[in-house]
Amino acid sequence: MKVAIYGAGAIGGWMGVKLAQAGHDVSVVARGATLTALQQHGLRLIQGGETHAVKVTASDKPADLGAQDLVVVAVKGPAMASVAARIAPLLSAQTIVLTAMNGVPWWFCDGLGEDFAGKRLKPIDPDGAIAAAIPSAQTVGCVVHASCLVDSPGVIRHHQGNGLIIGEASGHASERVAALTATLAAAGFNASASEQIQRDVWYKLWGNMTMNPISAFTGATTDRILSDELVRNFVTSIMLEAKEIGARFGIPIAQAPADRHEVTLKLGAMKTSMLQDVQAGKAVELDALVAAVRELGQLTDVPTPYTDALLGLARLHASTLGLYPRQ
């Protein structure tokens, strides 16, 4: 396959190396120091004490790369408007766009049934430009269960996990998802197909939407957040709001918040990706993780006072640092 990676950060870079190792023709849209590193040294992955390097075609101009069979979009939410404006040269009518991103994606409502299909969440895609540029019919969602870090531009370090769950944005099973799952499995991923990817997105979000922003504005690792009784109770209240929202649009969560807390505590002193972004001076993806949940609460008539408080605190902190421009 011809595969383009749009966003050669931790997850995109990891996926790009493994797909190239499996024999696929991998190219990367990159810029700045990352582009220079890819052109000079290729894309590199540190895993199991070994460094693996693969040659890739890299450019800051998608038109240089041409139409692809598969485009892996692995950027943070704040970058999606720019991606949508530039992605067209990579797409043909047959191209699959695989979105390996955290939080609520722009296509989330398309797989929630007639009452929600076609609705656009303003925090994610305020003017519909992303949905117009990347048709839902060509979009496959991907929930990543892996931990990777960028050591330096073009150099990715894999820590743990190898899971990819994929499914149609429409929320239905398809032959192309089955075929893509087999392709990813052959490349060494623990890949599985979902009959409704929105369920997997929502379940992962249920933990991420609290740990990420709270760590970002406190500087605390996840073990410290959950070890403080008052903060843990705040987290639990937010999760109960999100649980009720999910139940109303048809994605109930059987677990209690305390069950997820136990899972998170087993990960130890984890520094979330949003805390890493704040420390690196990068824009934070509050819209996909928190603001979208707040809007889904409004659409389902679920009051969200705790989610509102979380969003307000995190937004104020990030905007004060210049890392969240929208108000």
TrEMBL record:
Q: Which UniProt keywords apply?
A: NADP, Oxidoreductase, Pantothenate biosynthesis
An example of a Gene Ontology cellular component annotation for this protein is:
cytoplasm
Name the SUPFAM superfamilies for this protein: 6-phosphogluconate dehydrogenase C-terminal domain-like, NAD(P)-binding Rossmann-fold domains
The processes (GO biological process) annotated in the record are:
pantothenate biosynthetic process
Q: Which GO terms describe its molecular function?
A: 2-dehydropantoate 2-reductase activity
The pathway is: Cofactor biosynthesis; (R)-pantothenate biosynthesis; (R)-pantoate from 3-methyl-2-oxobutanoate: step 2/2
What Enzyme Commission number(s) does the record list for this chain?
A: 1.1.1.169
Q: Does the keyword Glycosyltransferase apply?
A: no
Ketopantoate reductase N-terminal domain ranges (all copies): 3-170
Catalytic activity of the protein: (R)-pantoate + NADP(+) = 2-dehydropantoate + NADPH + H(+)
Q: Where is the Ketopantoate reductase C-terminal domain?
A: 197-316
Q: Does the keyword NADP apply?
A: yes
Q: Which residues form a coiled coil?
A: none
Q: Which NCBIfam families does this one have?
A: PRK06522.1-4 (NF005089)
As for what it does, the entry says: Catalyzes the NADPH-dependent reduction of ketopantoate into pantoic acid.
Family in the record: Belongs to the ketopantoate reductase family.
Q: What is this protein called?
A: 2-dehydropantoate 2-reductase
State the organism of origin. Paraburkholderia bryophila
